Structure to design on (305 residues):
């Protein structure tokens, strides 16, 4: 007769939980080129996406709608039905083309997000052409072109050594230069650009935060903060801010603030079309202030341009 099995040998392993197969969500400070490149692409995409909100604001603004309705109403008084319909379709198509042209500079801004932007001297965002209307910014003369698909993600390959000099070096008293991990040179070892990312699983970067640590002033300045579109509204952005504040505290900072020229701060259209952007800006600053208060830091503020 076969011997009876012991209770231990016959017992099965405990059933796995449904959440055991889910990828892990991690938010951490990164220095690896692959993570930093993915973060820069995500930031570039967020700038290109601003074009959609800007176009929507322009099309649905009361002034635009009123002008379009008035024009169509006048045409309806003088044209036959078939002619009116075809003319109206042409006017609408022309309006869409004009809106697309007016907001195209967001793609140029997205192209400028690369390693030069991340690690370049001063790390300031390139401005758009001064020939644009008031309130527009100058385009960077050194940005690379986007791919033929027009995705706006930009070229974020590591840049060559930066040779631009600051005013002190021009006068013969420049600060000591040092080489960083990306291959570029920074003007001063008192400024450090750090990148915090949120990774879903092993490969997908779904959130990015770029922060400039000013060691002399003992403060950190947020230069970019974004989450991939389909993951927004799920506390991923808050997690990035919390980790960014922790990193700032670890590096001796006593305050964190948004840079006045952060990656998503630029406005292409006149002020009256930017209400949606201003609401987002206000909400972001309120969230940062709350995170800082929870971690015992002072109130956040916007840095001057």
């Amino acid at each position: 007769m076969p011997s009876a099995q012991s209770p231990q040998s016959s017992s099965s392993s405990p059933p796995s939980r449904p959440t055991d197969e889910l990828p892990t969500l991690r938010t951490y400070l990164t220095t690896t080129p692959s993570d930093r490149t993915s973060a820069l692409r995500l930031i570039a995409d967020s700038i290109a996406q601003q074009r959609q909100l800007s176009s929507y604001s322009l099309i649905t603004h009361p002034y635009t709608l009123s002008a379009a309705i008035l024009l169509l109403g006048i045409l309806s008084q003088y044209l036959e039905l078939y002619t009116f319909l075809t003319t109206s379709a042409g006017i609408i198509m022309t309006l869409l083309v004009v809106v697309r042209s007016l907001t195209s500079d967001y793609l140029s801004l997205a192209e400028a997000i690369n390693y030069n932007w991340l690690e370049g001297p001063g790390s300031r965002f390139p401005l758009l052409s001064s020939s644009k209307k008031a309130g527009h910014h100058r385009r960077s003369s050194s940005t690379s072109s986007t791919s033929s698909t027009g995705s706006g993600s930009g070229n974020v390959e590591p840049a060559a050594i930066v040779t631009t000099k600051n005013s002190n070096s021009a006068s013969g008293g420049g600060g000591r230069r040092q080489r960083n991990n990306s291959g570029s040179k920074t003007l001063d070892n008192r400024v450090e650009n750090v990148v915090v990312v949120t990774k879903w699983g092993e490969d997908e970067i779904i959130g990015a935060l770029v922060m400039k640590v000013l060691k002399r002033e003992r403060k950190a300045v947020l230069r970019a903060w974004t989450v991939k579109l389909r993951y927004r509204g799920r506390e991923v952005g808050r997690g990035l801010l919390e980790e960014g504040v922790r990193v700032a505290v670890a590096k001796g900072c006593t305050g964190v603030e948004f840079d006045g020229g952060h990656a998503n701060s630029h406005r292409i259209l006149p002020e009256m079309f930017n209400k949606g952007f201003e609401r987002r800006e206000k909400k972001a600053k309120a969230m940062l202030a709350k995170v800082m208060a929870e971690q015992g830091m002072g109130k956040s503020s916007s840095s001057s341009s």
In short: Residues 122-187, 300-305 have pLDDT under 50 and may be disordered. Residues 33-60 form the longest helix (28 residues).
